UniProtKB/TrEMBL annotation:
<dbReference type="GO" id="GO:0031543">
    <property type="term" value="F:peptidyl-proline dioxygenase activity"/>
</dbReference>
<feature type="region of interest" description="Disordered">
    <location>
        <begin position="372"/>
        <end position="398"/>
    </location>
</feature>
<dbReference type="GO" id="GO:0008198">
    <property type="term" value="F:ferrous iron binding"/>
</dbReference>
<keyword id="KW-0847">Vitamin C</keyword>
<protein>
    <submittedName>
        <fullName>EGLN1 protein</fullName>
    </submittedName>
</protein>
<feature type="region of interest" description="Disordered">
    <location>
        <begin position="211"/>
        <end position="251"/>
    </location>
</feature>
<keyword id="KW-0408">Iron</keyword>
<dbReference type="InterPro" id="IPR044862">
    <property type="entry name" value="Pro_4_hyd_alph_FE2OG_OXY"/>
</dbReference>
<dbReference type="InterPro" id="IPR006620">
    <property type="entry name" value="Pro_4_hyd_alph"/>
</dbReference>
<feature type="domain" description="Fe2OG dioxygenase">
    <location>
        <begin position="444"/>
        <end position="552"/>
    </location>
</feature>
<dbReference type="GO" id="GO:0071456">
    <property type="term" value="P:cellular response to hypoxia"/>
</dbReference>
<dbReference type="GO" id="GO:0031418">
    <property type="term" value="F:L-ascorbic acid binding"/>
</dbReference>
<feature type="domain" description="Fe2OG dioxygenase">
    <location>
        <begin position="98"/>
        <end position="204"/>
    </location>
</feature>
<keyword id="KW-0223">Dioxygenase</keyword>
<feature type="compositionally biased region" description="Low complexity">
    <location>
        <begin position="221"/>
        <end position="234"/>
    </location>
</feature>
<dbReference type="InterPro" id="IPR051559">
    <property type="entry name" value="HIF_prolyl_hydroxylases"/>
</dbReference>
<dbReference type="InterPro" id="IPR005123">
    <property type="entry name" value="Oxoglu/Fe-dep_dioxygenase_dom"/>
</dbReference>
Length: 574
């Protein structure tokens, strides 16, 4: 259809910060009466644009760097996320591969009182100042918009400019993408209230002229040259030995956390795109994730980034908010809602990036020291997989490497932090008011926390067949009530496998299951007493995780009367 509407493109906090920055820019008097492009007033040849009845907005053109945009870092965060989206779309929309750069961001305000922009196209193919435009991308920043406020964008048919195709209300956090040329005639309807937006044009500079609008490179793998002229570049996303390809480290500074990512080798490589959320930072190249990390604790999601092509180093600084997180209340509320509705839940960024990296290193160090033992029912060599990626029926039940450990030991500070956070989460769940039979029953149980289990699934197709973590009676009645698993895989991507598949019934064929990706710092929790049968799908890259089970203490004590020694070394406390 030539256009696309995306709601809730940013998180609520990111959208709010961006609107505040735009409003501050407007209040500072940095916006001027709308011209044709980049703030240049139209010439006599373009006089039709100068009439305020034709175009009644005020605009400004800005880079996202701090020198030109001192209002905050939300604009940079938005542009980074938009660049990631466009880069990923290039694999399915071939025309977008023509994009070589982007315009500056046009910040616009329609002040109300009927301000509008009459029917036009963003690239009429004639004017040098706009003929490089390929794709228009804009985000609306208008909280509380209601019908009657006006300011809608009306899109018309290309073959009949009087035929309305769609009217798009300018509601907050809505992104609109459309072709900039003759295919998308449009207009801004009269706005009766203040209307803010930020517009970006993605450019095809193979049509560039000396008068073309000022542009800056896209943060994407195709930023520098058109596809026909681009020299073959190494694909970071295709590297198989990630340990030797990408190195990263955190460092703590008084005002910020700094992440440094090093790409080895000598061949030229473009800067990867950044994808930011409230909990994670992801580096993307060729449409695939090459690194995904939880954000450090107490930082904002609007970082500063610097790419050194010569050193092949990306440096990202996450400003500290000045606030020390004192509880996991938002996380616990989210988890409680998920547990109540479906019996399991996921929290991304549960363990902050530096701590997650430290814990992963600890697990791998214990493995290197030979302290992990092979799981039951395992065998030598790789597991044969079927065409759909599942384990063949004659494969092993379980063949990970694991060990239980005491998180209070002096040599395991990262385990102590994980245990502390898990127990804090459980404490919040136990005193919460959320409804649900599972949660109500959980709050009546005297829980005991088991020792953490560190596990590595070797990347040779190792898996764990379909099973329950606990059953109500019989041999499998081990007293487990709740399972918590933290994943520690910063380089995970889809073809690495190792997802946790949660099923409704043990006899399910798997097609109705839900696959949970083992992303770095992600926590999954699920009730395990006759609930949530699951399996670990074949892992084709080493998969690291730490699991903590919570037990029904009273039930276990009843089972172990006269043999209390059976509990020794299993639990750490209530």
């Amino acid at each position: 259809q030539g256009y696309c509407v995306l709601d809730n493109f940013l998180t609520d906090g990111q959208a709010r910060d961006l609107r505040n920055e735009v409003a501050e820019c407007h209040k500072a008097g940095r916006l001027e009466a709308g011209g044709l492009v980049n703030g240049k007033l139209p010439s006599a040849d373009d006089a039709k644009y100068a009439d305020r009845a034709t175009r009644g907005d005020v605009i400004g053109w800005f880079d996202s760097g701090q020198e030109e945009w001192p209002h905050g870092r939300a604009l940079e965060g938005y542009l980074l996320k938009l660049g990631t989206l466009v880069s990923e779309l290039q694999t399915t929309v071939p025309e977008l591969a023509k994009i070589t750069s982007r315009s500056k961001a046009m910040v616009a305000c329609y002040p109300g009182g009927g301000a509008r922009y009459i029917k036009h196209v963003d690239n009429d193919g004639k004017h040098a100042l706009c003929k490089t435009r390929l794709l228009t991308a804009l985000i609306y920043l208008n909280d509380g918009w209601e019908e009657g406020d006006g300011g809608e964008l009306a899109i018309f048919r290309a073959d009949d400019e009087n035929a309305l195709r769609r009217t798009v209300p300018p509601v907050a956090n809505r992104v609109l993408l459309f072709w900039s040329d003759w295919r998308t005639p449009h207009e801004v309807r009269p706005s009766e209230k203040m209307r803010y937006s930020v517009t970006l044009w993605l450019l095809d500079n193979t049509k560039k002229s000396p008068e073309a609008e000022v542009a800056e490179p896209m943060a994407s793998p195709t930023a520098d040259q058109p596809p026909a002229a681009r020299d073959p570049q190494p694909s970071l996303a295709e590297d198989t030995n990630r340990k030797e390809s990408v190195q990263h480290e955190w460092s703590s500074q008084p005002e910020y956390w700094e992440l440094k990512v090093q790409f080895p080798g000598s061949d030229a490589v473009d800067c990867p795109a950044l994808d930011l959320s409230d909990t994670q930072v992801r580096l993307v190249a060729a449409g695939e994730s090459i690194l995904c990390l939880p954000l450090p604790s107490g930082t904002s999601g609007c970082p500063l980034s610097k790419w050194s092509k010569k050193k092949r180093t990306l440096t990202i600084q996450f400003p500290r908010t000045g606030e020390v997180p004192v509880s996991l209340s938002p996380m616990s509320s989210s988890m409680a809602e998920q547990l109540a509705s479906q019996g399991w839940g996921v929290i991304d960024g549960f363990l902050p990036g530096p701590e997650a990296d430290e814990l992963r290193s600890h697990v791998l160090q214990q493995r290197a020291l030979g302290k992990l033992q092979t799981g039951k029912n395992s065998h030598e060599g790789p597991v044969r997989s079927t065409q759909d990626g599942s384990v063949a029926k004659d494969g092993p039940m379980k063949n990970d490497e694991y060990t239980f450990c005491d998180s209070e030991g002096g040599d395991a500070p990262p385990l102590r932090e994980l245990t502390r956070r898990c127990n804090q989460l459980l404490a919040k769940l136990m005193v919460g008011q959320e409804a649900g039979s599972n949660l109500a029953e959980l709050r009546t149980i005297n829980l005991l926390q088991g020792h953490p289990m560190m596990a590595v699934y070797p990347g040779n197709g190792s898996a764990y067949g379909r099973h329950l973590d606990s059953t109500a009676g019989g041999r499998g009645a081990n007293g487990r009530v709740l399972t918590l698993v933290l994943y520690l895989n910063p380089f995970w991507r889809q073809d690495h496998g190792g997802c946790l598949r949660i099923l409704k019934q043990l006899a399910d064929d798997g097609t109705a299951g839900t696959d949970v990706e083992p992303l770095h710092g992600r926590l999954i929790a699920f009730f395990c007493q006759d609930q949530n049968p699951h399996e670990v799908l074949p892992a084709w890259r080493d998969r690291v995780a730490v699991t903590i089970w919570y037990y029904d203490g009273d039930r276990l004590k009843e089972r172990c009367v006269g043999n209390e020694a059976a509990l020794t070394g299993v639990f750490e406390g209530g």
